[in-house]
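hi!! sorry for the late reply, been swamped w classes. u asked for the two structures so here they r. pasted raw, havent cleaned anything up. first the sequence of the first protein and right below it the tokens
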Amino acid sequence: ADTSPSTFLAALRSDLRIRVLSRPDPRTLVFELVGVDASFANALRRIMIAEIPTVALEYIYMWNNTGLIHDEVLSHRLGLVPLNVDPRLFDEYGLDVDENGEAAATDRNTVVFRLNVACGRNEREDERLERKMEERWRNEGLVRGLDPKKANKGGEQEEGSGSSKKKKSKNKKNKKGKAKNEEGAKEEDEEEVEEEDEEALEPSVMGLSIADKAASHAAVHAASNANVGTTIAIDEPSRPFTKHIYTHHLLWCPQGDQLERFPLHNDDATTTTTTTTTSIGGIRPIHEDILLAKLRPGQVIELEAHARKGTGKDHAKFSPVATASYRLMPQIEITRPIYDDDAEELVNWFEPGVFSLLPIPSDAEGEDAGHRVKAAVSNPYACTMSRNFMRHPVLKERIKMSRIPNHFIFEVESVGMMAPGVIVAEALKVLKEKCERVVGLADESLAAMMGGV
């Protein structure tokens, strides 16, 4: 066989094919790559994992942390929070320098966040404290990517306190008549709601203990408030008040013209939580309900975090994919016909989704005569190469299973800062740059050799 470079490139151009197979969700892409060898496929996979630049929190300036989590652990947790920042819109750190020639942080290479939270003695005091701090950071020009009150369109959800005001409480005030004061009416309403919730709960192995009640209440209200989009934490009434700090407490500090380049409420942008997707813009964490820390009364966390571009080969937090894997395309051949009961067992038990049953006409002749159905390969993509059929004495003699060496099925799951299709395109660009660099080095080496001669 001709192994010259020109022949190889010609075969690559004629045989190379990329086809999208499915998009199970907006962050997952399944496609097939045909006409290349394993080295090309593996290079593409490794580039997607480790060489596509993204933006993540790199430097944490801890001003005050009296919580239980140590500074180093909290910094590490913050670094792993995926950010909704398109890295293609930012420069590499080090391109901009100051008057001394040293690398300088600018609005083109750095994104700044702050975390200023404190825990009150109880829920009411914590609400007052949070309102006061919210007014303070709004006056300082800080921005929160997701406003749970606006997301709920009514302000029913409380932020970070690990509890949720019950909509039923407010709806029942008109039914109860006039109360002596608003505070007393609110307490009575909450008691009635708790009683109704307890009646609706199913008995548990713990006998509806305090912990069971707390967990069940959280599950009930999570289901009833599915459109809120924030996590409801579990708190036991007997414990001291606990404040839960989530990623939506991170405040974005726009620098330079970043607020103009990344407007806050963009209809084309969405933020995802475990319960819903909300239309929102700006620079923010991709997931708003990641638990960062827990605080007890009197504890505070104050810090500033700087995010910069990096790649997965430096740290896993910069990797744009959760998974990027491939498998070889199965090749399945039925060497001898499989009929009736054996065919039904193959289709329904041994390899579901791969084979199908073909009805045989009553007037069939030859090998098909006298049989009801026959097995046929219908979807080789669904084959997992389990080879369960090898346990059947008849099937193992009539099926041949192998893999196609130049046909790869990729599955790419994005973390969220870039769509999986964009990640694949960026990986191909990086691979192209690597090839051009090798060609350039080869030309330079050849020119040096020719010059020496």
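now the second protein. again sequence first, tokens right under
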Amino acid sequence: MESKPEPEPEPEPKPEPESEAQAQAQAPDNAEAGTLDASGFEVTADRLEQLMKSMEVLLSDVEQLRSHCSHQTTELMRAAVDLRKQQDELKESYVDLSKEMQEIMDSVDELFSTKSAFEAKEKQAQKLNRQL
């Protein structure tokens, strides 16, 4: 493939002196606007700097909160583990005490049965004594 040379751009026509003067007369005066824009940029730059500083402070606060929350989470997890151990120990104690209580209740029932049987025998002995 052969490359074709690019056409040279046509030179722009020079404005006539009269139209140039008219253009300058119609163009807005940017000298005052330039000073306003520069001061506006300074204000904007100051505000951006302040915003950046406050964002840095906020990020620092967030990091401190994250660290604090992480520490509290660790402590809460330890407390939860301790509470689970205590709960397991209490369950074991409850089971043991329930067994003891059942044994005591069984013993009391046996004692009442023995008492009743003894009283019945005593009554029977008294009847036999009367008959004699």
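hope this helps!! also noticed smth abt the second:
DSSP finds two helices and no strands in the chain.
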